[in-house]
Amino acid sequence: MGRRLFRAVSRRRQDRVRDLKQLSVEKGAPRDAAPLFFVDLIAHCWQHRLLDSAAAVRASVTSLLLLLFLVPALLRGAGSDSGSTVEWLQDYLRIDSSTPAGAAEAADFLRALLHRHGIATRWLVSPEGRPSLYARLVPEGEVEETVVLLHHTDVVPPGSSWTREPFGGGVEDGTIYGRGAVDDKSLGIAHLWAFLEASKQTHDLTRGLAFLAVTDEETGGAQGSGWLVENHPELFRGVVAVLGEGGMNRIRGGQVVWWGVEVAQKRPLWLQATAIGRPGHGSTLNLHTAPHRLIRGLNRLLDRPLDFRITPEARRYLEAVAPMEPRGFQEAVANMDEIFSHPEPATRLMPGMPSYFLDSIQINGLEAGERLNAAPDQASALIDIRLLPDADEEEFLREIRELVGTDIEFEVLLSAPRSPASPTDTPFFQCLEEVLGQRAPVAPAFIPGITDARYFRQRDIPAYGFSPFMLDGSSLRGIHGPDERIPIEAFQAGVEELERVISGCVME
Ligand SMILES: [Zn+2]
Q1: Ligand 1 centre from 152 Cα, in Å?
Q2: Ligand 1 centroid, distance to 337 Cα (angstroms)
Q3: pTM, whole model, 2 decimals?
Q4: Domains (ranges, CATH) in the chain?
Q5: Cα-atom radius of gyration of the chain, to the nearest Å?
Q6: DSSP helix/strand/coil, 2
Q7: 3-class SS at 149?
């Protein structure tokens, strides 16, 4: 079955690449030009006396009848033929979804696409007015298991330094630019495509398949996934996998070396630190202004000794990928225990590795007075803390409060309770390993970032971060940065990879 499917999808991919090339050449050609071919043919035959006038009339009537049937069919198929995923992504990127209103508009864009394909949807609005879009394909018979395809329509604001239009969806040298090109709109379109393809063969479904677009991921998810699991548990009954963002794949020389399917992640502890002090004139010596108090307290926080430790999640992940990594990486993993008994382990780790082994503290926002010669009465900082899975949040907060003293008050803006890693011994995960394994092995990844997966894991709903795209470092650097982009070829290959996964694990 797998090979037949692989061949069929590959053939479709070739067709699609060919069609896309044509599309770029014939830009502007009407999409429903094909029926006119019949009219042209008849005119041609009549002109060259291949038909007499009566036969030409008969042929014209027949062709007109044909047109009546063909045009609707062609229009129906217009939204889902080859190359349309690229256009969908471009249109999706053109919606500025960095605001709640824009994110809702983006969800509405997807809703319209689903409706155009005859799919019923649910529009679920949180108390703060953030909508989530849900659709489900139900298999025949008594199948209770469902796989949910989850992505978020919201994006972070573009920020400065862009050299392309952040909401233009423009294509340059085979690459699509736009905020959300990687995080997370390309995944959304891949989900949509796989979902629509599956909707044409519901009798082949072995599990239910749901499409879910949420709108509050970048600002914490409390009004999106967090609200849904709390208020619409019926959507997640019998769910064997929520497939969302967060997967990280190793690509070398354009080939995937391993698929990192995220099963565990760090937890957010986002804080606002505020110091209050006596305001006054800048010319007067005042050691206890709000900014001074804040700076002293934050300094103590930054000087806190780093607490390196190896969690089972990090060990399992790094040991799984080490054999496929360069020698330096392999050695670091083989000597993990020895490295962490060293007084300064960070100096012996590869770049990027320390965050897998400690609770990290990053001060990312600072706000105090505006005038140079006046002390403000308040100063504050935004602190992004990421805890390892085994950290005790209450204990951590107690410790840093003790450390900074009474000068600073902390307010918790976002936190997450501990949750188990998603299981890897389930039939669904094994199916993922089987289908993806045709190209490269699957590793159970642990990531230092956070995604909505935590809301599902907290309720024992298995969630997996899976990216079907083979993106190299240069594409990944655009995430939350300037000039976010995805090469069209990588995007289309990912769309097909996801379709393969859904065909292999949700259909027979
Ligand atoms: Zn994201």
Answers
A1: 7
A2: 33
A3: 0.81
A4: 84-246+451-506 (3.40.630.10), 267-310+337-415 (3.30.70.360)
A5: 27
A6: helix
A7: strand
